[in-house]
Amino acid sequence: MAKVKHGGDIYAIASEYGFNPEDVIDFSGNINPLGTPGSLKKAIIDNVDILSKYPDPEYNELRGCISDYTRVKTENIIVGSGSTELISLFFKVLNPDNGLVLMPTYSEYEREIRINGGGYEYYRLKEEEDFVPDVYDIINSISGRDILVICNPNNPTGVAIETNNMERILKAAKDEGCFVFVDETYAEFADDSKNISSTGFVDKYDNLFVIRGISKFFGTPGLRIGYGLTSNKKIIDDILRIKDPWTVGSVAQVAGQAVFKDKDYQNLAKKCMHDERDFILDKLAGIKSIKVYNSDSNFFLCKILDDHKASDLRKYLLTYAIDIRDAASFPYLNEKFFRFCILSREDNEKLVEYLNRFFC
């Protein structure tokens, strides 16, 4: 059966190489190394009897917690079974004819546009400019488009568009009748997430849809909670009209409410990311065979500068139960690019050690 290839498939790796899944050090999945918050575990244990009840179909308490967390009005919040469900529903109801997708990026956007019969083109983020978006060139490319798709910070490049430039894009898009879709899956990992998040524009611009989830930052990909933010009432109504009911279960609701209130976990995660980003950049600076691109997120894109390929490096690391993402499948990248996420200091030290062994 054909499937979309993403990172984090430790089960396939374990089966192929004879490891136990829990022994694989997964640098491909971009999950917070702190793991599931204790507050979430406690909420599940304390509320396990809620399994005998149907979830609130309006998700009022959960949306209220998200509102407090994002400072977006409750009526402008929609929740779903992971961000993937909401990405699919959004592109189904908007069904763009002439979209523009900033590339290289996560494959799910173009997949959803394509399977719903829509049209799109790529906007190339230039390697020669370290994949930093040229905001004014993007604005000049909006004319005639019905949607602009941005991952911010971008996966796999790690580069983010700051809020002042994002508002320039939103204003220009509004004038052109263009919707702006912004995926902020990784925004919370940034040192200054307020300076890159578009949540503050949701109540102001009705041509904006921001998508987020709790899988990556809160280390809970198995729970499947995503949320979309938009002040466009028609988009919300159209999504709710075709959305299946109760796609977020009762336990997931109370668990989600707990993580959005857990400031200690959020602050610890920010500090961990800051410290480990600096550690990794410092350690990899001595490996002349790779270029490490600056990142506003919890992962790094790298380019191999010698004769090796990323597939060679990945095969080598897999023999030590370490997995990275070969980034050759991303548009405008090639066999020289790989991506890895930030894990614990112990795991990061191990990756640095084996990268040195491979390249030095």
Summarize the structure.
With 360 residues, this protein is of the alpha/beta class. Helices cover 38% and strands 15% of the residues.
Note down, in words, how this protein is organized.
The structure is a single chain. The chain has 360 residues and is of the alpha/beta class. It is 38% helix and 15% strand. It contains twelve helices and 13 strands. It has helices spanning 10-17, 38-46, 60-70, 82-94, 108-115, 135-140, 163-176, 233-242, 250-261, 263-284, 310-318, 345-359; strands at 25-26, 77-80, 99-103, 120-124, 147-151, 179-183, 208-213, 226-229, 290-292, 299-304, 322-323, 325-326, 337-341. The chain has a seven-stranded mixed beta sheet, with helices on both faces. The radius of gyration is 20 Å and the shape is globular. The protein starts with 9 loop residues before the first helix and ends with a helix. The model has no long low-confidence stretch (mean pLDDT 95).
Which features characterize this protein?
single chain, 360 residues, alpha/beta, 7-stranded mixed beta sheet, 4-stranded antiparallel beta sheet, globular
Helix and strand run: HEHHEHEHEHEHEEEHHHEEHEEEH
Q: Return the average pLDDT rounded to an integer.
A: 95
Helical content band: 25-40%
The structure class reads alpha/beta
Gross morphology is: globular
Spatial extent as radius of gyration: 20 Å
Total beta strand runs: 13
Q: Strand count, sense and closure of the main sheet?
A: 7 strands, mixed
Distance between the termini: 40 Å
The helix count comes to: 12
Low-pLDDT stretches: none
Q: What proportion of the residues form beta strands (DSSP E)? A: 15-25%
Lateral strand order in the biggest sheet? 2-8-7-6-5-3-4
